[in-house]
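Batch job 17 of 40 flagged for manual review because the log was empty.
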Amino acid sequence: MEFNTLSRMGLERGLLIRLVRKAVRNGTSMDQEIQVCSRLEQDHYYDAIARRLGLVYLEDLPPDQVFHADKLETQLQTPVMVRLYPPGRPPVTVLTPQAHQLQDLEERLRRFPSLKETLALTRPAAIRTAVWALGSQTRAERASNRLFDVAPLYSARQVMTGRQGFWAGVGTALVLCGLCLSTSIFLPLLHISLSMLYLCALFLRAATLGHQVRYRMQWPEPLLKRPLPTYTVLVALYRERDVVPQLIEALRRLDWPAALLDIKLVCEEDDQDTLNAIEAQPLPPHFEIIRVPPIGPRTKPKALNYALSGARGEFLVIYDAEDRPHPHQLKEAYGRFLASPPHIACLQAPLIIANGHENWISSLFALEYAGLFRGLLPMLGRHGLPLPLGGTSNHFRTAVLREVGAWDPHNVTEDADLGLRLYRAGYRCQTLRCQTLEDAPTKPHIWIGQRSRWFKGWLQTWLIIMRHPLAACRDMGLIAFVVFQLMIGGMLVSSLFHPALILFLAATLWSMTVLSTEELPLREVIFFWVDLMNIFGSYAIFLALGRSAMIPHERRQIGRRYLATPLYWMMTSYAAWKAVLELRTKPFFWNKTPHTPRRVKLNNET
């Protein structure tokens, strides 16, 4: 019936036959295939329907004439109908009829010709554009403040509570008093505390290395023949003009029916260079440009929250502008969601550094990412422990993402925060096998800027959890709470005080050169070996964890640049201290990492 109706509307029969076959193959409807058909201009299609029905076709809708109903935002996800109130004229109901509705609509207009005065037609994109513009300011404010308004204790908008500020002051005063009153007692106590913390973190990494040897993730089984759902892809872009063509090409390669893809390119409204670069590309119909009003914190999570209002997919993934995701990643994620219980709310794809060969910074970054995304995170996911998500390639059940409040716009590592918030809400995260290729910074100042933002966000996340540590421990469970402390708290402290351990080791070595073996206190000997194991053991585990996760080609690219590991760790410590200072002066500042396009095979597999 739809075929005959559309044929009467003037559509070419050969094209209709191809659309029918596509719909059968993809498990979609004719309407869905029509919306993404590159050979069928949406304006021409709906204009032809309007002329056949004797209705007015509106190419664009004036946002100020759209009636702001309570549930108007539903039209962002399923644009069906809006009400226009033109000045000095009767109201008009604007429709985007589906193919199966055309015959009934034609019959009704034949019976009641007067309806033609109150009806008009438009394309779905015109309704979405008008609704995005109509509520943009309110939506942006909600995207910025919703989590703080609903659950302020989970929001980083308040950097520290009064209680945390009090205890931070007490701790600082005790440290200063200890240094002033009895350095000979205080420094050994500090030394012991740092050494024990380092040892615990070292054991966690060693356990990860053992897990990596025992378990090797397998490629996913192909999906059974069953209808696929709509999948939303969100990409936040800011000052990313140069990488836009590469991004569009990578997203085109996703192995998912176009009729079931909802790709949203999310840009700041005043980032005209990036918007011009996107508009210069021949975007397929399933791509949509979202313009975010430049208010509130200018952060990636605020932009993602804004775009989430229009997400149509049952599942959702986020990518960064420079990402080259594996084409089969969405299908692997969907297959894993199907095979997993409902409390598995998020799947993290591994991030692999594609430019590890460029210099020593990118090489060590590649080692670090290999150990994290192909070692530590799979182990945590397998054992049901909290997963601090990476900033991209996170696949979500969209309903759960909305339920937990989505991203925190004031947290500059919104990914780690969201992973822990999901865990506290009773959900779990796991990892995937299909990778996403990324590029590491190659210049020290860019690397330090990016890493200091990460440290600042991890510190924000730690402060949020520690606002009520007992409640957090009850929510997470004791083991998960301890693992969180080692992952986030231990990483922060060890990064901040790594130079102190080196100084302690140097002081002990100096003592050993000045004093004879008999005169050297046993405590100094023990400290020496513990410091030696902490420092060089940390380096060794860092390298072993990363190299064991890599394929031979990656290891050959890195060569002997791993010898710069001590310098890399000192840079990490500098970035950590920079983050502590920034948390006081500019807590929500998003230090933007610039990206450049790369000539790589986007379907490269690792």
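Reviewer: the log was empty due to a logging misconfiguration, but the result itself is present. The chain has two domains: 2-134, 136-606. Unflagging and moving on to job 18.
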